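[SOLVED] Need 3D model of a three-part complex

Original post:
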Amino acid sequence: MTQTLLHVQGITMDFGGVRAVNDVSFDVSPGEIVALIGPNGAGKSTVLNMVSGVLTPTQGEIFFESHRLSRVKGYEYPTLGIARTFQNLQTFDDMTVLENVMVGFHSNTKSGLLACGLKLGFSRREEQDMYDRAYQLLEMVGIATLGHLQAGSLSYGKLRLMEIARALATKPKLLLLDEPAAGLNHSETADMTNMFREIRKQGTAILLVEHDMDMVMNVADRIVVLDQGQKIAQGLPEEIQANPKVIAAYLGEEEEGGV
Amino acid sequence: MFKDGKFKKSYLVYLLIVILFPLFVSDDYYQSVAVVIGLHAIVVIGLCLVMGLTGQISIGQAAFWGIGAYTSAVLTTKFGIPPALGLVAAALVPGFFAYILARAIAGLQGYYLAMATLAFGYMVQIGITEWESVTGGANGIIGIPSIGFFGETEIGMYYLVWGFVTLVLIFSLNILNSRVGRAYRAIHKSEIAATSMGIDVRKFKLSAFVVSGMFAGISGGLYAHYMGILDPQPFGMHESIVFITMVVVGGMTSIWGALIGTVIIEMISEGLVAASHVIPGLKGDIDTIVFGAILVLIMMFMPEGLVPRLRTAYLKRQVKKAEHGKQKQKERETVA
Amino acid sequence: MTELLQYVANGLVSGGIYAIVAVGFITIYNVSKVINMAQGEFLMLGGMVTVTFISMNIPYAAAFILAVLLVTGVGVAIQKGIIANAKNANPVSLIILTIGISILIRGVASLFWGKDPFALAPLTSNEPVTFAGVSVAQQSIWVILTVLLILLGLWYLMDKTMLGKKINACSVNPLAARLMGISPGKMTMLSFAISAATGAIAGIVIAPLSVTSYDIGVLLGVKGFAAAILGGLGNPLGATAAGFLLGLLESMGAGYVSSGLKDAFAFLILIAVLLIKPTGLFGERSVGKGGL
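Solution:
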């Protein structure tokens, strides 16, 4: 962990008078899995949306390597090396699964309108290459056999895997995952946990927002805990498990849940 | 790519029909109908790229058609430029207008975009009508030279126009299953997801508009030289809606659908003209009623359009067949 | 000065009509998120049906009321029969669908009435009224009065009555409204009825100013849509202001620049405004995915 990959510095987000996130800072190092946890409404997804550029922080700044993200356009994020999945799936339902993943290669490929329309040699080769690599990624997430099906016909769990493959296609240095295990069963979650380790092995850092504590404790190198928009703790999984503040925050939620 | 076999078959059928048509139908009238179908098809395929693929509504497509027609007509009649060069300009000038329009409205969506393109369509038609010194105003332009492709015959024009249709069709089909086409379709489905995949949404919306504008312009140029006379009347909202009808009938998301939709609507049109000769007292716009009814019925009962509907039905049957086969095999195995 | 006043007077008349059409668009849009491109046809039908009834020797007032009722019925039928049954309705398909309805109505009208224009007698005498050197047709004054009455009535209905509150509830949150026992379907139908009725009234009062024919709805509809967008879709006050603004600018443009370019001014202004403010002049809502 020599230098930081992502440096989040005092970000705040106001939604028309409501402060959803208040002065949150944390870092992610290359190849590290950091989990962002907290009770419902803690602001986890909002943080993720700010890091991925969907929202612009009201205050504070996010740095990725040497780039100030407020100066980077939304579509340039994958070129920098940031990719994401969505909590409420954003899949291209009328494309095949393979095509969905092939969209992920967009920022690393060049074929323009003319090259594509005229099927020039290099765009043909690029297309074939994208196809092969998309297939490999589908194999990696374990849904290669579904490649030619319409994405819209897949189950929720498979679509989550497809979204991860699509994000990996951008060759990210940092992968942002918004509740990837939501709606998955036990064995699917276990497979996904293994997959995250595989991804980390290949040098990609992961910032993970997740409710499934087993998964988080299993896979995360470090954990950042949010409660009501504030960072209340950060540290190794075992430290977080023993942290009284964190326990209080989660207990509070359970009481509310009980009412 | 992975559908190569199927594509080749459809290309073959298409080429056979296009090449052989004039040999079997020698009647000048029907050949001229075929020319007009081809001219419209070029516009409609372009509109399909914008509406079907990228999901951006354009209710002003006839404006690009008109700009193309008038560009070539004015250049050839007033400045003596050869029609071939006029055609090049007929592609470039509407492309430029499409670029300006698309840059201006790139941030608009849904109803706002519909209104902006509608307004653009009206402005162009009014502009053509009012700029009398150049366009001849409501009286139009006469004496536009014909292109002369294998002589100035109907057949020559037929092959020229359908040559362009074929080029535009192949270009668009290539786009459909390519990096650019996937970017268009991604934008259609979710701009947020497209952006997160590194797609510059504005840029690709822009390029779809420009290509569709250029296609419409080429068709307009050919139309001008084919007709020999021009007036502003055909380049208004009515024609834009006819183009939309053609796209919608064939299926917005299908390039082949655009072509087939054009043929269907044009044939209905011709049928109605023929019917009006037989049935006296049809004083109204029967075709308007029919097109309106088609739009309403399609959007109510088959919003995906004809070609995608047939394709889905075909695929479902294939799957059923396959399942049926599997089941039979299983039965045999259990018996054995 | 007289010239200017004359243009202002003309502009107020057409602007008032655009405002009615625009508010008609928004009444439906706010409840159902549908832009009804057939809005202009309600005006055409209002005028044409009245002409027909009068030619059947029905008294003016009765013809007026019958025409409004009939057109309201058409509006309800469109909603009940077509729009409520449209599958997977996104903005693009709704636009196409209602464009289809619009040209269908126009086509049937051309079959029924032919393509010749018809004249409708003004409510009161043909004699123009002159003050401060500005001559105004008596009918124009009726138009302005009717427009103001309709706008006031709609404002009262929407802001002061229980029914208006129910309609607004559907617009803000259809699910919550349903839970409160308000049927969004019924409210949508009602919004079509209101739009059709106000459109028909507007169509009847403007008919005597020129002539009426099967195709007058196209441009009126488009201008009204332009005003609705210009005012910021969803905002009735904005639409009213934008309607009058369009009418005034158009009338000035026609007067001072060129009458042939009259229609182009409205659209030029519209595109210019959208360039600077993509949500319209008075629009606060986002134009993002959700705000389509």
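Edit: The interface with chain B takes residues 52-54, 73-79, 83-84, 86, 90-95, 99, 102-107, 109, 111-113, 116-119, 123, 126-128, 130-131, 148, 166, 170 of chain A (CB under 8 Å).
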